[in-house]
Amino acid sequence: MKFTKMHGAGNDYIYISPADEYKQYDWAELSVTMSDRHTGIGSDGIILALPSECADLKMRMFNADGSEGKMCGNGIRCLVSFAIDESIILPDKSPVSIETQSGILTVSPVFEEGEMVSAKVSMGSPGLTPASIPVTINGLDMVSDYPLTIAGTEYMINCVSMGNPHAVAFLDTPVEDVPLDKIGPIVENHDIFPEGVNFEIVNVIDRKHVKVRVWERGSGLTLACGTGACAVAVSARLHKYIDDDVIVTLPGGDLLIRWAGSGNVVMEGPVAKVFKGEWAK
Fold first, then answer.
1. Same domain, 144 and 65
2. What is the pLDDT of residues 202-240, one digit of tens each?
3. 168 closest CA partner among 145, 141, 201, 194
4. Which stretches of the chain are DSSP H helices?
5. What's the pTM value of the predicted model, to 2 decimals?
6. Out of 78, 159, 225, 230, which one is annotated catalytic?
7. Are residues 249 and 144 both part of a single domain?
8. Whole-angstrom Cα distance, residue 46 to residue 64?
9. Helix crossing, 226-238 with 73-85: angle to 10°?
């Protein structure tokens, strides 16, 4: 089975166009095996490029633990580049519509010297009600600065859905000094999040720049998370910490997020190929 490994700001996935072989594989199990960084290819998961009846392309994504995700902001950019390379879509097609479990999103490729190097993604409107995330906290229109005590430390969390659930905490402590590998799993599996949650910790640098680390549901520590960057921007904008445009610096690189306080969130970020191969196991 042929594959291409790609990453967006360090958030890496294995891309496959399974065609007629689709029904032969347990993709959840295969994602666990292929994603292993010691005995497999190594990735945050796998993403499938599938035909769609309502869009140019359909995306299915599986996390490194085998769970299926509804959407991936960094992954959807790379998916378009992969689909162009595999002649699934034409290189002059723009914007490209992608069917996801979070609805149909549009991706506008950016080319330099004939090579796709980045993309802008219309990510849709954020969900802010507890039911849309979901989070089981009653009596609130939105979850903003809600105190959550984890391992003896209180975090003020802000919940946003960007097609998948996010809990965002703004900190004065430098994000690199926080033991996210320890507290991340506790937040992800906390009782108030019936479907689990992605957890982002944030330092606001100035009105146009924030620094973020991510614990990603189903994958653990990741170098970047596109939907997470959007959730951070939405939370920061609602708190009036930032302007409409913000650079989100993650361990794997920068993403540009635009949100005017309502309506559609736009994400712009890089696309990079790592290598191609054939999975023979």
1. no
2. 999 999 999 999 999 999 999 999 999 999 999 999 999
3. 201
4. 27-35, 73-85, 180-188, 226-238
5. 0.92
6. 225
7. yes
8. 8
9. 140
Based on the fold, state whether residues 139 and 242 are members of the same structural domain.
yes
Catalytic residue among 72, 78, 159, 230: 72
Above 80 in pLDDT, residue 1?
yes
Virtual torsion, Cα 215, 217, 219, 224, nearest 10 deg: -50
**Residues 232, 258: one domain?**
yes
Contact indicator for 44, 36 with CB cutoff of 8 Å: no
Give the closest residue to 166 by CA, choosing from 204, 140, 128, 136: 128
Looking at the structure, tell me whether residues 147 and 256 fall in a common domain.
Answer: yes
Check whether residue 104 and residue 204 sit in a common domain: no
pLDDT in tens, 15-34: 999 865 666 789 999 999 99
Distance, in Å, from the CA atom of 170 to the CA atom of 200, rounded to the nearest integer, reads 9
Percent of the chain with pLDDT over 70: 98
Per the annotation, the verdict on 54 as an active-site residue is no
Q: How many domains does the chain have?
A: 2
Q: What CATH code is carried by the domain that includes residue 179?
A: 3.10.310.10
> Which domain does 48 fall in, by range?
2-122+269-278
- Judge whether 72 counts as a catalytic residue: yes
Rounded CA separation 80/59 (Å): 10
